[in-house]
Amino acid sequence: MKIFLREHLGMILLYILNFGVLFTIFSVFNGFSDMRNVFYFMFLSLFLLIVYLSINYLNNRKMYKALRKKPENFDEVLGSFGTSEFGKDLNKFVDNLYGLYQYKVHLYIKKQNEHLNFINQWIHQMKTPLSVIKLISQENEDELYIQEIKEEVDKLERGLTIALYNARLDTFEHDFNVIDFNLLDLVNQVVHSLKRYFIKNRVFPKININKDIMLKSDRKWIKFIVEQLVVNAVKYSLDKGKYVEINAYEDQGHMILEVEDKGIGISKRDINRVMEPFYTGQHGRNYGESTGMGLYLVNEVCKKLDHDIKIESEEDKGTKVKITFKNFKHNEVSK
Description:
alpha+beta; Heat Shock Protein 90; 5-stranded mixed sheet; 3-stranded antiparallel sheet; 59% helix
């Protein structure tokens, strides 16, 4: 009703103005012989206005009702404006608009898929020359510059890994495989792959995980999560913390995987934003390697796997990241 009144407000005001002008003219020229004529004139004018507005509203009430309702999808909108001439035209317009919307969405999805396919192919192509460089480096380990080359190759591999997993995030459902796996084996594999990174930064791992703990999740994505957390812990421990601790323990029926460092920590103004995409924070800008995507991807993957993540940090004292797993089994848990 509010929409209807707003739409016809101008006509109603014009009608009242016209009524006032005619009433004044008739009064000046003695057009009304007595009060009965005055009331008859007023009644007839208002009656015709009310009849017109009522018929108009009844014919278009479905349209006004549809305009007031907040739709949740396009199916609720299509054909919802009634059978009046204006409603039919509006239904046709919305139908054409929906067709245009579908066409545009189809084009964007096609372009996005082409872009993702390009990124995936490009990353895999870049890994081939990196593998060749690593082989050449292994054959010439006695050269002093080889260690520097290996370190740069490791950086390139980590960067390509982040790009690859970011590209795969949109198609997560197609790249998802839940299995039972041993947590300690996975962590040892990650630590071993980052051996040179630990040595370069003069930081060493401390692992406190019971060998019998089994998790039920996607092993590949969990490995990616652990690697990102360990890389961050090592990176921000430089010249401060000497160890990165990786612990696992049971808490209230859930398994907690914890990666803790004693490094530079995260400032209070950054702690609530470190999981935003491309946000590096003050410390991240001081370390050129930071992309601002690591923790963002970790958080997104945890959401998709239904695992909880929590970050505790204090500047100049260190950071602790906890991943909570609801599905696990073990024979014995180390406290």
